[in-house]
Design goal:
By secondary structure, the protein is α/β, with parallel strands linked by helices. The chain has helices at about 1-5, 20-30, 40-50, 60-70, 90-95, 115-130, 150-160, 220-225, 240-245, 275-285, 285-305, 335, 340-350, 365-370, 380-385, 400-410, and strands spanning about 55-60, 80-85, 100-105, 135-140, 165-170, 175-180, 185, 195-200, 210-215, 310-315, 320, 330, 385-390. Strand 6 and strand 7 (about 185) form a beta hairpin. Bound molecules: pyridoxal-5'-phosphate.
Length: about 425
């Protein structure tokens, strides 16, 4: 075991923070404005340009991004969203924050993605609930692991049902694809009203905590900005309390009173501070390099993992996609080797290799079972029973995928 002891423990994912990232944060810490300073808009502008969207609104984390998107749509009680069951809790929870309901869609058992077919089944379940039932407002595809969901067909189905698409793009930063009408990037909102991102340390770029919503709709962008800061407005043309807002005596009401603000609608404090935007700007400049590393490492994984077929396979990439994979998900036939997933995880950990499970199907969570009963989503259950996320992050060595695959081979006894 001497050789494996010498090698560093490989977590399943982690941030890559370099000296210039630290310098950028240190500079921001010496500035006057730690909260809403110039780096917030600079990060938003750089992000919008990078993913090809007209607007980007920064916020505290990916969960806040989803909540802001639902509020910007005016989601409310009596309405319903559709989210795939194979995702992080927040994709579903964001509807419940606004007292709306969630209908869970199944996923393809081999890709983990909500498909047009599984979406259609979920839409039928919404419709079956009969008169007076919640009305479909939004569909939230997740680009699981970094592979893009079939957005053109998902959008067509959503629109036919009177709903809009909001992408949970937390895994999708850096992914490009061609759905048949030219090159697109996750986040450019060609097929959606909004897309949401997270800068949690395991995601493709890191802020510690951080999130972003992109959109091409200026009305949605304006609402997102207002909602992330208490629902406050400070633009004089938006004021309705004119007697309080304007000084009729001094300047005859030309300028609004300098302290004045109004709250036409309730909002939250979901701001992303200037200091973390400094880190975001610095990290975003490295996205192409990070994505290229992820592609190289994924290629090495594919090459070495082929030796473990058919017991182990890797999640396939949809046609036309060039993903910057967020997760390296192996699908393992645990029964075939007579081992439990826990035994395999423990065996890998003993060899210095971290792994994780993405995700426990959300429709099985007690909160949702209490609310909706247990629905049958065989694709999500099948995916869950086989999946194991292996180490993937931008500063892994070229030799690491082989090291992971040989450890996996030894643990599985292949
Ligand atoms: C990480 C993640 C979120 C939540 O992001 P936070 O920044 O942790 O709040 C939501 N959805 C998906 C698919 C994620 O991976």
């Amino acid at each position: 075991m001497a050789d494996t002891k010498a090698a560093a423990f490989l977590p399943y994912g982690r941030q890559v923070i370099e000296d210039d990232d630290i310098a950028a944060v240190a500079l921001a810490l010496r500035a006057d404005l730690l909260t809403t300073g110039p780096r917030v808009a600079a990060f938003e502008e750089a992000f919008a340009a990078k993913v090809g969207a007209r607007h980007a609104v920064a916020c505290s984390n990916g969960t806040a991004a989803l909540h802001l998107a639902m509020m910007a749509l005016g989601l409310k009680r009596g309405q319903v969203t559709i989210a795939p069951s194979l995702t992080f809790l927040a994709t579903a929870n964001c509807a419940r924050f606004e007292d709306a309901e969630v209908q869970f869609a199944d996923v393809d058992p081999d890709t983990g993605l909500m498909t047009p077919e599984t979406l259609e089944m979920a839409i039928s379940r919404v419709n079956e609930q009969g008169s007076g039932a919640a009305k479909l407002r939004a569909v939230l595809p997740v680009h699981y692991g970094g592979n893009p969901a079939d957005l053109p067909r998902i959008r067509a189905l959503a629109e036919a049902a009177g709903a809009v698409v909001v992408e949970d793009a937390c895994h999708g930063l850096g992914t490009a694809m061609d759905f048949g009408s030219g090159r697109e990037q996750i986040g450019d909102c060609t097929h959606s009203a909004m897309a949401t991102f997270s800068f949690h340390p395991v995601k493709t770029i890191a802020c510690g905590e951080g999130g972003m919503v992109t959109t091409n709709d200026p009305v949605l962008a304006e609402r997102l900005l207002r909602l992330r800061s208490h629902g406050m407005v400070r633009q004089p043309d938006a004021f309705s309390l004119t007697a309080m807002a304007f000084d009729e005596i001094g300047d005859g009401g030309r300028d609004a009173n300098p302290w004045f603000y109004e709250m036409p609608q309730i909002g939250y404090n979901y701001r992303l501070p200037d200091v973390l935007c400094a880190l975001g700007i610095s990290q975003l400049a490295k996205l192409d390099r990070f994505a290229a590393r992820r592609r190289t490492l994924a290629g090495l994984y594919r090459q070495h993992m082929a030796e473990l077929a058919p017991v182990v396979s890797l999640v396939a990439t949809p046609q036309g996609a060039n993903p910057a994979l967020h997760l390296m998900v192996a699908l393992i036939d645990f029964k075939a080797v007579g081992l439990s997933r826990k035994q395999v995880m423990d065996g890998l950990a003993a060899r210095g290799i971290g792994s994780q499970v993405h995700y426990i199907p959300v429709h099985r969570q007690p909160y949702y079972q209490d609310r909706y009963g247990l629905i049958d989503l065989p694709g999500a259950d099948a995916f869950y029973s086989r999946c194991l996320s292996l180490p993937l992050f931008a500063d892994m060595e070229d030799s690491d995928p082989e090291r992971v695959v040989s450890a996996l081979r030894a643990v599985l006894g292949l």
